[in-house]
Write a structure and sequence with these properties.
Rossmann fold; 38% helix; 21 helices; alpha/beta; binds alpha-D-glucopyranose; 2 domains; binds adenosine-5'-diphosphate; 6-stranded parallel β-sheet
Length: 499
């Protein structure tokens, strides 16, 4: 069989730039694909951290992205440990600035995000239309930031063009923009048709059967409408997004396209997340040396100023502080959790009001609650290893990676049954314990009391060392590597490239 060529277009990739799980997936899935013989190359925007960290950069192409404006260079660089080369869009006016990939230092969206990610989409589409030397069979687009690529590819078909795949990592973020986009081109805000033309798309694309969403332009809707195939990052989420509760307004379109939609479960990077070798840990451990996990708990408590106690389970949580992650369920029951004889360590950043509410709890019980704000890769690993229980009470969760990291680290997850959490964690009810398959605690409803019940159950079982050890071993024995999901992607790419 001939080698499959895939362009993986993404707005973040670990370790160059990361705000969440998309960066982890953008690093580890391409590596797993390459291991299966796919010639996969990344395309990312040239944020300062990307330009600084890539090695051996050379100019690959010079182009204009939009009609009459915005010259950019496409660079090719080397990312140590990743798949190579990595293509980078070098356009300082769009990407070189302090702050994050999507937000400024105050947490506000960059006002020119429409242009920044239309440019990413456009360059992905140029690769897809076989304009450059690397001619992919498939352009794999990820989330709204690359959503216009399938539209561009659709309206500029060349004799041989790639197929487009749109992966939804989170449908809550859609990239919806209005007339303000015209002003970014220095023009008065007249009408949306003009905006679409400025972005290099034809007038007819701006309709309900196209990129229009309630009179605005939706990047994600464009991707979902025009792509040859759609995936979500877990099978359950593929069903969830077809419902009004989880589809965020796009459930109708996804239902209409269900024959071209599949869910492929994310894997994890089993090298970076391996308690046997993780260099961030106080002590490495494995199923065979499980008691050594306790050294990490001690070290974590010491580092964070928590009381040392082997009777109290330590609950961990590492998260973006947003509505999605179910903090509204957790925050009201924090006093009950402490009352039940557990401790809490949280690492996260995001919503400022949530941050200050959490800090207040930590101030009241500094020996039982540790709240750490900001992004901290080392501490994330230390919490995965040091905590006994991991909390993910998400209201929705397209896949979720931390519950898989937790199980691999013998840290028992408590999750809500939604999306990828439902697909990866098996509840510790008696029948599952009996069958030897239970790996965690699962609750059903968006209800703080159900979460608390699970915590009580976990605290009780924690004191039964035998059952607890079985839960740990069940989780640690599961295969969360990319192997089987990367095979599914390969098969999908192959099918698309032959259709
Ligand atoms: P999402 O992408 O929705 O945020 P995931 O569970 O898929 O959720 O992935 C989150 C990733 O980001 C994990 O690798 C997690 O460890 C990491 N992460 C989230 N917040 C922080 C933080 N404050 N510090 C370090 N890592 C974090
Ligand atoms: C998104 C989702 C998360 C998923 C990640 C990687 O950020 O919120 O559930 O694991 O993408 O696919």
């Amino acid at each position: 069989m001939s080698t499959l060529r895939v362009l993986f277009a993404t707005s973040e990739v670990y370790p160059l730039s990361k705000t969440g799980g998309l960066a982890d997936v953008s690093y580890s899935l391409p590596r797993a694909l390459a291991a299966q013989g796919v010639d996969v190359r990344l395309l990312i925007p040239g944020y300062p951290a990307v330009l600084d960290q890539l090695l051996l950069i050379e100019v690959y192409e010079n182009i204009l992205v939009f009609p009459n404006s915005t010259p950019v260079r496409i660079l090719a660089g080397i990312m140590p440990g990743g798949v190579n080369p990595v293509y980078v869009i070098d356009c300082p006016s769009l990407y070189v600035r302090d702050g994050g990939p999507y937000l400024d230092e105050q947490g506000n969206e960059w006002p020119d995000n429409a242009l920044r990610f239309a440019a990413l989409s456009k360059v992905a589409a140029l690769f897809g239309n076989h304009v450059f030397l690397f001619k992919p069979h498939v352009v794999h687009c990820n989330d709204w930031q690359t959503g216009l690529a399938p539209a561009y590819m659709n309206y500029h078909p060349s004799l041989s063009r790639a197929k487009s795949l749109m992966s939804v990592h989170n449908i809550a973020y859609q990239g919806v923009f209005g007339l303000e986009v015209a002003e970014l081109f220095g023009l008065p805000p007249t009408n949306m048709q003009r905006v679409v033309q400025l972005l290099g798309l034809p007038l007819e694309s701006f309709g309900v059967e196209g990129l229009e969403y309630h009179s605005k332009l939706s990047f994600l809707k464009a991707g979902l409408h025009y792509a040859d195939w759609l995936t979500t990052v877990s099978p359950t989420y593929a069903k969830d997004v077809q419902t009004a509760a989880f589809g965020y307004g796009l459930q109708g379109l996804l239902t209409a396209r269900q024959s071209s939609l599949s869910g492929i479960l994310n894997g994890i990077d089993t090298e970076a997340w391996d308690p046997k070798t993780d260099s961030h840990l106080a002590k490495n451990y494995s199923i065979e040396h499980l008691p050594a996990k306790g050294e990490n708990t001690k070290a974590l408590r010491a580092k964070l100023g928590l009381e040392q106690s082997s009777r109290k389970p330590l609950l961990g949580m590492i998260t973006r502080l947003t509505y999605q992650k179910g903090l509204d369920l957790l925050v009201p029951v924090i006093p009950d959790i402490i009352q039940a004889g557990a401790q809490l360590v949280l690492l996260g950043s995001g919503d400022k009001e949530l941050e200050s509410r959490l800090l207040q709890y930590a101030k009241l019980s500094p020996s039982q609650i540790s709240v750490n704000l900001g992004y901290n890769e080392a501490l994330a690993h230390q919490i995965e290893a040091g905590a006994d229980i991991f909390l993910m009470p998400s209201l929705f969760e397209p896949c979720g990676l931390n519950q898989m990291y937790s199980m691999r680290y013998g840290t028992i997850p408590i999750v809500r049954r939604t999306g990828g959490l439902a697909d990866t964690v098996i509840d510790a009810h008696p029948a599952n314990l009996e069958k030897g398959i239970a790996t965690g605690f699962v609750f059903e409803e968006e209800d703080a009391h159900q979460l608390l019940e699970c915590v009580y159950q976990a605290v009780t079982l924690f004191r039964n060392r035998e059952i607890w050890r079985t839960l740990q071993i069940n989780g640690m024995s599961r295969d969360f590597s990319w192997q089987s999901s990367a095979k599914e992607y390969c098969a999908l790419y192959r099918r698309l490239s032959q259709s």
